[in-house]
Write a structure and sequence with these properties.
By secondary structure, this protein is of the alpha+beta class. The protein is 19% helix and 32% strand. The strands form 2 sheets. A 5-stranded mixed sheet has the order 4-5-6-8-7, sandwiched between helices. A 3-stranded antiparallel sheet has the order 1-2-3, with helices on one face. Strand 5 (69-76), helix 2 and strand 6 (104-110) form a beta-alpha-beta unit. The termini are far apart.
Length: 170
């Protein structure tokens, strides 16, 4: 028989997670109660098998926390749901939560991830510094976007793209 776990019992399945799922941010967010979802198990007291139902379309959560600094992770699960504003809404709710609790959100992304750069900009983040990282012989550029004192309006005006000079800050 399959049983639905109560949210305060979700942590019981941590030992069941495979190595690929231990660091899955969405599953961890459901277990921690920061994302919607449900967990079903074969035995409520000592689960041996678990099914995690992700009921959300888009999620925004803290993927890395140091004191009051929170790194944002956002995901829209299905390609058919992308570019419909769901990630913007999830992030807006997350940012409101941060403001209400005195947390400082941080947005870090690859400069080549145009969707992420646009979403961060739309939400009021602006480019803070550019850092170079190396992976094999391929140079990857990572952009860290800092938070303005306010998050700005939830709209984005399309701007003409210009070539940017890439600087390395040490």
């Amino acid at each position: 028989m399959i049983h639905r776990l109560e949210p305060n019992d979700y942590a019981k399945i941590r030992t069941l997670l495979s190595p690929e799922n231990v660091n899955d941010l969405t599953i961890q967010a459901i277990i921690n109660g920061t994302n919607r979802g449900a967990i079903f198990v074969d035995d409520v007291e000592q689960p041996r098998t678990a099914l995690v139902d992700q009921t959300g379309v888009s999620a925004c959560l803290s993927c890395c926390v140091h004191e009051r600094d929170h790194e944002i992770s956002v995901e829209t699960y299905e390609e058919a749901d992308m570019n419909k504003g769901f990630a913007t809404l999830a992030c807006a709710a997350y940012l409101e939560h941060c403001m209400e609790h005195g947390l400082t959100p941080h947005w870090t992304t690859l400069e080549t991830n145009e969707e992420s750069v646009c979403l961060g900009t739309k939400l009021g983040f602006e480019s803070k510094k550019i850092v170079k990282y190396w992976n094999s012989n391929i140079e990857l550029i990572r952009v860290s976007m800092g938070c303005r004192s306010h998050f700005g309006n939830l709209f984005y005006q399309k701007r003409k793209r210009s070539k940017r000079e890439i600087r390395c800050e040490e």
